[in-house]
Amino acid sequence: MADTIKLDESWKAALAGEFSAPYMASLKSFLQAEKQAGKVIFPKGSEYFRALDLTPLGKVRVVILGQDPYHGDGQAHGLCFSVLPGVRIPPSLVNIYKEMQSDLGIPPAKHGYLEHWADQGVLLLNSVLTVERSLAASHQGRGWEKFTDAVIARVNEQADPAVFMLWGSYAQKKAAFVDQTKHLVLKAPHPSPLSAHNGFFGCRHFSKANHFLEEHGMAPIDWQLPAQV
């Protein structure tokens, strides 16, 4: 699958064993069969690994974990919580923006396109990288979770420390093995409207992340998104 899809070379090398594993062959066959059956899969094939392609392994400074791609038309493009320009900002991202404004004084962006973060070393990784249109969680348990576990493990093994922002119990369980003696692991409830008021608001993860990066001699993340995309 790595040979046919655009992917940064650092990740191709680090994940070579995963791409050659039987579970990935099975996953590829599943996706091909779904497409042949006429099902619409999000995001498009060239964007399955967009998060990895935009954020090479050696440049990862922050990891934000999501669960599944958005399953509505025109939303998903390979980065968790992010939507394409012109698409309505999803409720969870609205709340992320609210917390950023409270924490850093950054006014909410008028769009939900987060590539500016990815370009700076923020790995915006979903646990499952594909979904069937209009069917949330439809590709869970097909192999993506094992692959993205390996992605997190490679970041965990890096010599340089990183910040893991784990929002909600799903993300916290998935990255439970991360070495907290080396990396900064920040935990809060999910920014969903159902749970944001239970401790996501006020978590100050954005300023905490930047403080940690600066303490370790790394540039902070410019969380303010461009006005125009």
TrEMBL record:
This enzyme's EC code(s): 3.2.2.27
InterPro entries: UDG_fam1, Ura-DNA_Glyclase_AS, Uracil-DNA_glycosylase-like, Uracil-DNA_glycosylase-like_sf
CDD domains: UDG-F1-like
The protein's enzyme class: hydrolase
Key words, A-Z: Cytoplasm, DNA damage, DNA repair, Glycosidase, Hydrolase
Active site: D68
Residues covered by the Uracil-DNA glycosylase-like domain: 53-213
Location of the protein in the cell: Cytoplasm
UniProt signal peptide: none
Any one GO molecular function term: uracil DNA N-glycosylase activity
Catalytic activity from the UniProt record: Hydrolyzes single-stranded DNA or mismatched double-stranded DNA and polynucleotides, releasing free uracil
Family to which the UniProt record says this protein belongs: Belongs to the uracil-DNA glycosylase (UDG) superfamily. UNG family.
Annotated function: Excises uracil residues from the DNA which can arise as a result of misincorporation of dUMP residues by DNA polymerase or due to deamination of cytosine.
Full protein name: Uracil-DNA glycosylase
Source species of the chain: Rhizobium alvei
Taxonomic placement: Bacteria, Pseudomonadati, Pseudomonadota, Alphaproteobacteria, Hyphomicrobiales
Gene field: ung
